[in-house]
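Run log, item B.
One chain of 341 residues. Sequence copied directly from the ordering sheet:
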Amino acid sequence: MLIRSKAPLRLGLAGGGTDVAPFSDLYGGAILNASINMYAYATLEPNMGNTIILDAVDKEESYEYEVAESLIIDGRLDLHKGIYNRLVREFHLPAFPFRLTTYVDAPPGSGLGSSSTLVVAILGAFTEYFNLPLGEYDLAHLAFEIERVDLKMAGGKQDQYAATFGGVNFMEFSSGDKVIVNPLRIRQEYLSELSHNLILFNTETSRLSSHIIENQVKNVLAGNSASLEAMQKLKEQAFKMKDALLRGELDQIGEILDFSWKYKKQMADGITNPAIDELYLTAISNGAIGGKISGAGGGGFIFFYCPGNTRNKVIHALEAFGGHVKRYEFVNQGLTTWRTP
């Protein structure tokens, strides 16, 4: 018997960074994101013998351990180990032999929430196998705690909920790790036009988002006025983008993206660099009206809103920077699990 799961990656359209404590605890955060047809996959296969095998196909890493109640966190597939350790401890599961195979359609540091989405996918597989009493909010919160508390990985809260729930969501964050997910019912023609006009460009560079997020946290704790103002502006733009999307006023989304990008760069050092700035200006000069780095910044994917028939001209102009445009579609389904013989 194989247990399989998949969870979608996401585009963070507005409000990114306001889901990170302590800002979300002190001021409240708001984010608009949408899941896309790129996924993290997990397959859980109970096996004979006395071994636990962790196999990350996309990273070309595979490790074998003797069955134990806790696996050592040592920098080798720590996400996989952290999930196993937490589930055994919290749900009093028996240590058992298994093979866990994973694959993600985007690498770590892509800005599409790949690490958190992988945690959700793996949790989904274990939840299906053991029939754990976890609803959507429970599972997303547990994924957050494993990453941010157990493994002490810096980051926010949106990715775990986006991967679990799927679809287009307006999320609100407040103190006490409170999260409210508001699914948005967007007309299909609006979503089709948005996916046509939003170019997703892979810079084919990676960045360690934790460093950028740590700088952001320091700025909040220090009361850095420029950083705090930027985060408040980004929060405001999440509300404005929600309204624009619901009404089908799509060109406003490009304007909101441009406004937000100017403030996002003020949140912390490392969000942008001369290469990203040049790429952004090139897209704007060829017809895009706004865009932003996906995720914390510094590299990975960047997307641009290209109204009318400007899409192809912008794509052609970006060819000079290397990288490539990634085709995608928005999807409504979040975490999915199933069993197969």
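Observations after the first pass:
- The two ends are 5 Å apart (CA to CA).
- The chain has a mean pLDDT of 92.
Flagged for discussion on Thursday.
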